[in-house]
Amino acid sequence: MSQTPSRATRTDAVTNRARILAAAGEAFAASSSASMTSIAKQAGVGVGTLYRHFPTREVLIVELYHQEIQKVIDLAHTLAASLAPLDALRRWFDEVARYGQLKYGVAEVIHAATNGGLDDENYEPFLGAIAVLLAAGVAEGTLKPGTDPEDVLLQLSVLWRIPPGPDSQKRAARILDLVIDGLRTRPSAP
C-alpha cells in the first residue's frame, strides 16, 4: 500500500485541527457559550471530526488556551527586538487584551485545568515575556526599575474580566493606559 493516502490523511487531519482551533478562537471570543456544533460548522468540518480531535469542550478550550498564550509569549520577544520599549510594551499589552476576550467566559475551564494556575506550564514563560519588555524599558530609562512581572500580570488580569461588547476594546485601552502610566518613570523633581 502506498504512503500517499496516509500522508494525505495526516495533512487533512492537521489542517482540520488548525481550522477547528481558528474557528473556536473566533467563536469563544464572540460568545463563551458557543456550541461544539457551531464551531464545527464554522470550521467547515463535521461534528465527528471535531470530536475526534477534541473529545470534550474542555479539551478544546485548554488546547486553544495553550496555542493562544504561546503566541502572546512569543510576540513579546519579537516586539522587544523590533520596537522602542514603550511601543513594544503597548503593542504587547494590546495583544494581551485581545487574548483576554478569548479567555473571558472560559476562564473557569482554564482555571480548573491548570489547578488554579498552579499547574500552568505557561505561567513562568508569560512572566518571562513581561520581564523582557520591562527590562528593555528600564534599560532605556522609560520604565521604573524593580517592577515585579507578577505585579504587572495581576494588573493585566483585569482584561479577562471585561465582558465582550461594543465598548470592550475602548475599556481595555483605557485600562492599559493606566497600567503603562503607572510603569513609566517620572522626571525628578527640581
Automatic annotation (TrEMBL):
Residues 35-54 bind DNA. Keywords: DNA-binding, Transcription, Transcription regulation. InterPro entries: Homeodomain-like_sf (IPR009057), HTH-type_TetR-like_transc_reg (IPR050109), HTH_TetR (IPR001647), Tet_transcr_reg_TetR-rel_C_sf (IPR036271), TetR_SbtR-like_C (IPR049445). It comes from the Bacteria. The keyword Repeat does not apply. Residues 14-72 form the HTH tetR-type domain. PANTHER family: HTH-TYPE TRANSCRIPTIONAL REGULATOR BETI (PTHR30055:SF234), HTH-TYPE TRANSCRIPTIONAL REGULATOR RUTR (PTHR30055). This is TetR/AcrR family transcriptional regulator.
